[in-house]
Amino acid sequence: MAVMTSTRVQQSGPVLPTEEDEVAAEGSELLGGPVGRHALLGFTWWTPVRVVALVALGLFALGMVQKIPCYNGGWFFGANAQYTHACYSDIPHLFQGRGFADGLVPYFDRLNGDMEYLEYPVLTGVFMEVASWLTPGGDDLVHREQVYWLVNSGMLMICAVVLAVCVSRTHRRRPWDGLLVALAPAAALTATINWDLLAVALTAVAMLLWSRKRSFGFGVLLGLATAAKLYPVLLLGPVLLLCWRTGRWREFGKALGGTAAAWLLVNLPVILLAPDGWAKFYTFSQERGVDFGSFWLILSQRLSSPPSTDTINTLATLLMVLACALLAVLTLTAPRRPRFAQLAFLVVAAFILTNKVYSPQYVLWLVPLAALARPRWRDFLIWQAGEVLYFLGIWLYLAYTSGGKGAMGLSQEGYHLAILCHLLTTLYLCAVVVRDILLPERDPVRASGDDDPSGGVLDGAPDLHVYGRAARPPQHSGEIYTDWGKGPEERPESFTDEERERRA
Questions:
Q1: What's the confidence (pLDDT) of residue 243?
Q2: Which residues, 6 or more positions from 18, have their beta carbon under 8 angstroms from its beta carbon?
Q3: What end-to-end distance do the CA atoms of the chain give, in Å?
Q4: I need a labelling partner for 269 at 20 to 30 A (CA). Which of 14, 23, 115, 498 fits?
Q5: 10 Å Cβ neighbour count for 228?
Q6: What is the DSSP letter of 35?
């Protein structure tokens, strides 16, 4: 254990991606080229946040347009058409399949079939129910399903704009990083497949509050996000590790308390009044077998004796625990404290990579975290290319398996390649983020002079608990260098002989 100080180099003014990112500079040629030295930044109506919001609206609308073949009949009159056109969505199918068309109340009323109750977390169930209230009645079920999808899409569009705006405002000096979210092709393709955008938007609001040093508010929004989808609770892990390194236990307590309070506020009424319906999501997640998109599926389909669901549950849990342990070691031994967004991305990516199912819309979980953790267009687009390939791969595989003899699409081997594209590009982005942690001078955010803009109370905070080589900084000219908050150009190993003599 060592006591170390950290000084943040104060900077002012926005960071322009066209000045620090070659891909952004090249791409800007479509709009007239990089920003010039005489540009009036911040003095027009077209502020970065407004531009990001409008771009997010435009891309979301294009994603809706991509679903037109299904809207015009693919969801209802041809099961294979929704796969060949890659426009599948759970939303219209579950309108009737989960009882919303019949006015059933989620968690309280049993469904027809083997599901018994709605298998979604409570806040997502509320979202689905509100959309059903806004859907008009009538005898034409096909038309009602279409309207239900449109209503949900409108509500999810609001979530998409909230998400992009929050990412744009989380790093105060880097508002243009929100364009990574707004222009993410995989996000546009998957936004209306399911209801994940609700949890993703709430998580983005939570991270914005954390960056503004509102620890309890962060916890409240994270609790609401966890009530909509399980993965957001994983962000408490990075908060715990970073508060451990900096000794900010009070802030972690506020975050944990806010999360627990908000989650209980949403879930407790349903737990007390409809315990069986509430528990369905958790029992379903535990009991479901290996499903699409995971490397477990590749193993199960290639092994002559595939492991049981219980075995895979155990192995997936052990792998996730191992990944968390490695992240803890990385956090407490890194030469400079990792940024919150970096650890948030890594822990959610670890969950996705080890999970027994990967639905195409799960990419939404990582998009804002990737934009904050590694705001570089090249790496982001490499990862997005893998996700788009997987998006196409799963629908072509389903077209092949459900279309009968002679159906066009991807065979099992082709689908396995699509899964590998998703896994390898996600691992690539993880590797780049880990490299940035181990070599902070390679981190785009810190290279521009910031410490941890999304870290809130952690931004510029001194380190109190550090282990390994980072706890024993190098000595130069009789002085011990303890300021890991400085950039590489300010470290003793980069000093000239004259500078070292002057400091001595």
A1: 96
A2: 24, 25, 28, 33, 34, 35
A3: 27
A4: 115
A5: 26
A6: P
Neighbours of 373 (CB within 10 A): 30
In a domain, 31, yes or no: no
Whether the predicted pLDDT of 494 surpasses 80 = no
Say which amino acid occupies 88.
Answer: Y
* 12 in any annotated domain: no
Which contacts of 478-484 are long-range, i.e. CB under 8 A and separated by 24 or more positions? 478/504, 479/503, 479/504, 482/4, 482/5, 483/4, 483/5, 483/6, 483/7, 484/4, 484/6, 484/335, 484/336, 484/337
From the number of C-beta atoms within 10 Å of its C-beta (0-12, 13-18, 19+), residue 247 rates as middle
Whole-prediction pTM: 0.88
Give the pLDDT confidence score for residue 477 in this predicted structure.
Answer: 36
Q: Are residues 248 and 359 in the same domain?
A: yes
Mean pLDDT of the chain: 87
Same domain, 441 and 480: no
Note the pLDDT of residue 408.
Answer: 81
Task: Domain count for the chain, please give it.
Answer: 2
Q: Is there a single domain that holds both residue 466 and residue 479?
A: no
Give the span between the Cα atoms of 218 and 213, in whole angstroms. 9
Q: Domain limits at 367?
A: 46-471
Q: Which tokens go with 49?
A: 């946040």
The per-residue pLDDT for 137 is 86
For residue 163, what are the contacts with CB-CB under 8 A and spacing of at least 6?
56, 181, 197, 200, 201, 204, 368
Structure tokens at 46: 């077209």
Report CA-CA distances (Å) from 279 to 87, 107, 113, 234, 285.
31, 9, 17, 20, 10
